Amino acid sequence: MIQKTIITCASTGSSLSPSMSPNLPATPAAICDQSVAAAKAGAAIIHLHARNPDGTPTNDTEVWRDIVNGIRENCDAVINMSASMGKSAEDRLSAVLELRPDLATVIVGSMNYGLFRKAENQGISEFNTDWEKRAFGPSSYEIVTNNSFAKIGQMLDILIAEDIGIEFECYDVGHLYILDYHLSKKNVKRPIIVQFLTGILGGIPSHPQHLMHMKSTAEQLFGQDLQLFIHGTGMANIRTATTGGLLGTHIRIGQEDNLFDKPGVPFDSNAAQVERMRLIFDALNIEVANAGEARNILQLS
Question: How far is CA 168 from CA 30, 140, 299, in A?
């Protein structure tokens, strides 16, 4: 059992959109403001994606710079940049190498992502902008998240050489074995930081029995080197995070993964989700780590 639980807030992503909730931070300024508020509410780590002013996802370094610098200037949260956009390892890590966050996220398996299911989970079928209609329309049935063995290995080589911390995103049990293979070939600093992303249509569901199986498999593979985070998708997210806390793992919540408190009732903000988890954990006598404690637990400089 870990001594304190780290809360990651994934404040925005690339798979939910402004038509789904007016409270989704979908501009650089809103992402920065909500991230800072979430940190002040108790999130030790802010997991980030970048968006243009119209809400479209981007990996543009200058957009990233506005977001990351704004957060750094206003709180001490651990910055975790997603590195999921781009055809090559170099493309995906271009902004990361420029801005040097505490952590960069590497997805360790390919999968049918099922972006259309994200819209279904949020109860949304009507979209206000052309880019949303394209993103969640018939073409979303063609999306395969491409993370080849070569691309994963190249990303690890770059991040290891640059001494940037790595978070590994695993969507299913097989991804843990892919990660184990790469760790046998690469000198990645310990601890091994693993984030379970559950509830995506192409991955493992968020049911407790699946979480237990994933957790026991990760522990068998990585032992004492493991620092594990658990997250769920849609309105299962708070329940999944609570399960993670009870299992002794760290957790992730936030508007990247879920927008709604109840059907038709959106969360006001990312901070509201962090506050909800703080309330639940307080009732369960689960202590929450601050940013400094999270850095110590994860051995980040």
Answer: 26, 24, 15
1 in any annotated domain: no
- Name the least confident of 157-161, 164-168, 262-266: 262-266
- Cβ atoms of 242 and 220 closer than 8 Å: no
- Convert 139-158 to b/e letters by CB count within 10 Å (16 or more is b): ebeebebebeeebbebbbeb
| 239 alpha carbon, distance to own chain's centre | 17
| CATH code for the domain in which residue 268 is found | 3.20.20.70
Domain containing 290 equals: 7-298
Domain assignment present for residue 83? The answer is: yes
Please enumerate in sequence order all residues whose Cβ is within 8 A of that of 297, keeping only pairs 6 or more positions apart, or say none: 2, 4, 6, 227, 289
Whether residue 34 lies inside any domain: the answer is yes
**pTM listed for this prediction:** 0.95
What is the overall mean pLDDT for the chain? 94
pLDDT of residue 122: 76
Residue 191 DSSP symbol = S
2 domain-assigned: no
Dig out the tokens for 212 from the structure: 């237990």
* Nearest in space to 77 (alpha carbons), one of 276, 232, 254, 238: 254
The count of structural domains within the chain is: 1
**Contact criterion met (CB below 8 Å) for 89 and 70:** no
Closest CA to 245 of 282, 214, 272, 219: 282
Q: What is the mean pLDDT of residues 3-25?
A: 94
Inter-axis angle of helices 149-162 and 173-185, to 10 degrees?
Answer: 50
- By three-state DSSP, how is residue 272 classified? helix
**pLDDT mean over 114-140:** 84
Cβ-contact 80, 103 below 8 angstroms: yes
CA-based diameter of the chain, in Å? 48
